[in-house]
Amino acid sequence: MKILRYILFPIMQIYFFATWLRNKLYDLGIKKSISYSFPVICVGNLSVGGTGKTPMIEYLIKLLKDDYKVATLSRGYKRKTKGFQLGNKTSNAESLGDEPFQFYNKFKNDIHVAVDADRNNGIKSLQLIENPPEVVLLDDAFQHRKVKAGFNILLTTYSDPYFSDVVLPTGNLRESRNGAKRANIIIITKCPENLDKATKENILAQIKREPNQHVFFSTITYSNTIVSENTSKIIEGLKAFTLVTGIANATPLIDFLNSKGLKFNHLNFKDHHEFSQQDIDELNKKELIVTTEKDFMRLKDYKSLKDKLFYLPISVSISDDTKIGELIKHFLAN
């Protein structure tokens, strides 16, 4: 794979120029971005792959839902519907996409959850619903520059930071590193616990942040229990099980489970994998299945798996979360 990426280096230069030109046209106002009179917060990244956008959106929901009417707006990747869709009691992973359905399943009594590939149409449609939102959280929209978000949160992983990468197809960046300048907040995600001061200072030096930018470090916190629709189990007491993942990077989860001394067989699928009947038939043979919350959203409607399917909840811990809350609420107040 690495050899192929180097072979594709000439294409990288073309991709770099195309994305640079597109961004320049937006910066100069030749291509138009629409801004809104109410707060729009964008969460995104520069790279392909999992940087932790879903838990970050959930972090923001918890931060804001008690004081504001909140809506999330996602593309709804791999859903089987078109256009604008608003989460309701008939929604599922096929109609909303797995991650938006996860938001709906968890926060349906607190927020609106919507999907639309055209983010401007999605925002306008949200404003027409009964009890419209006061704040819109855009999920994975950092490159969607047709919308001019009032506040941008850029995520990059500790193990594969954008400042050490190059654009596709040689690297993993969707656009050049220079795009990070659009961010109000940069969060280094999936950091080891107790990251030392010297390492943080080294990362800050490589970021070369703008005067108006703030950098935070976050870690993934795994629950001590696995959860099904009806019950839960303490993780330390688990016997051998099957781990099922359809996410961009399962390594942190595997490392956590190994650190607990657990015995499991790992079935690793590509990100947003659509489970076939053959997959389900194979899973029916397993006694206990542990998966991610996102994958649980796609699997939970299979009745044959109901008594054996569990997910491991995760949350995000952010360094100086008081400060990040103050920055976001200051934006909302102004």
From TrEMBL:
The keyword Lipid metabolism applies. Pathway: Glycolipid biosynthesis; lipid IV(A) biosynthesis; lipid IV(A) from (3R)-3-hydroxytetradecanoyl-[acyl-carrier-protein] and UDP-N-acetyl-alpha-D-glucosamine: step 6/6. It catalyses: a lipid A disaccharide + ATP = a lipid IVA + ADP + H(+). Signal peptide: none annotated. InterPro entries: LpxK, P-loop_NTPase. GO terms for cellular component: plasma membrane. Belongs to the LpxK family. HAMAP family: LpxK. Transfers the gamma-phosphate of ATP to the 4'-position of a tetraacyldisaccharide 1-phosphate intermediate (termed DS-1-P) to form tetraacyldisaccharide 1,4'-bis-phosphate (lipid IVA). This is Tetraacyldisaccharide 4'-kinase.
